[in-house]
Amino acid sequence: MSQIKKTNKPIRRSSSRNKRKKTGGFFLLRLLHSIPLWGFVLGGVGVVALYCFILFHFFVDPYSFQWKAIYGETSYPAEYTVRGIDVSHYQGSIDWSRLRNANMGSDPVSFVIIKATEGGTLMDDYFNENFYQSRRNGLLRGAYHFLTTDVKAKEQACFFLRQAHLEEGDLPPVLDIEDERKWLASGKSKSEIQRMALVWLKEVEEYYGVKPIIYSSYRFRKDILNDKRFDAYPFWMAHYYVSQPARDITWTFWQHTDCGKLTGIKGPVDCNVFSGSMAELEGMLIKEIPAR
Predict the structure, then answer these.
(1) Catalytic residue among 178, 205, 258, 282
(2) Mean pLDDT, to the nearest integer, of 272-291?
(3) What are phi and psi of 213, to 5 degrees?
């Protein structure tokens, strides 16, 4: 027998995969070299165009109304002619003599809803002045309460009733309940949130003899207040930066932007429309407050 000499050198084997890799790479290189310069330019233009389309479709077009509002081009839905605003201390001191002559698009400001109270102890610093001046300057007025998670609903209703003092000829009182994440983070269940809202609504309705208005976002109404008991109350829906509000919820007022700009108010202001005519809005006003 012949002896086989051992060696520690690794045995090199040809790899068909490496050959294919080299062949494929060579083919791709040749293909790239065969493409004329104008092909690269055309491809680059196509990539840029695709990028612009994606950017516009997903990040610009859905918020086009928002960009317009931010840059001073507030859009007023043309289908509605009864327009109004809602204000609070965020607007600071308002020049009511100028505001009463302001236009929202081609229509005047017809109504204003004013923040009165929040929780069980907080009264808006500008409420009394705004409430007095709005009527003095010929605008229909209303008042709203911002419901908080940390005070019993009945206590909040009583606080609002002590401070707001709506009169005959005013719009119905408004319950402002919003920010779904904050409510759920408070540990309250959906049924508990609904119960708090109903307690406030019923307490205030009994006092004024009219159905209060519920103000909330489209999503909050859809996810949290989706109970038939709330259908009896006029709904004021905040639904921004859309040409038309959602059609699956019946609304009476639509807050279509929070970036409105009006003569007499420094900075942005919420703008709203009423779903009906001026005569229908006047039909909602408090006619007579029950005797105590």
Answers:
(1) 178
(2) 95
(3) -95, 140
Q: Based on the residue annotation, tell me whether 118 is a catalytic residue of this protein.
A: no
Q: Is the pLDDT of residue 138 over 90?
A: yes
- Higher-pLDDT residue of 6 and 50 is 50
| CATH architecture for the domain at 78-282 | Alpha-Beta Barrel (3.20)
Chain length of the chain? 292
Predicted local confidence at residue 224, as pLDDT: 95
Bridge partners of 8, per DSSP, are none
Amino acid present at 7:
T
Q: Which of 115, 136, 111, 134 is nearest to 125 (CA)?
A: 115
Q: Summarize the confidence of residues 65-91 as an average pLDDT.
A: 78
| Both structure tokens of 165 | 């003092």
DSSP 214-255: EEEEHHHHHHTS-SGGGGGS-EEEE--S-SS--SSS--SEEE
* pTM for the full predicted model: 0.76
Name residue 104's beta-bridge partners. 107
State yes or no: is 178 an active-site residue: yes
CB atoms within 10 A of CB 237: 24
Residues 6+ apart with CB under 8 A from 77: 243, 244, 254, 256, 273
Structure confidence at residue 53 as a pLDDT band (50, 70, 90): low
* Residue 92, both tokens: 């600071």
Domain boundaries, the chain: 20-61, 78-282
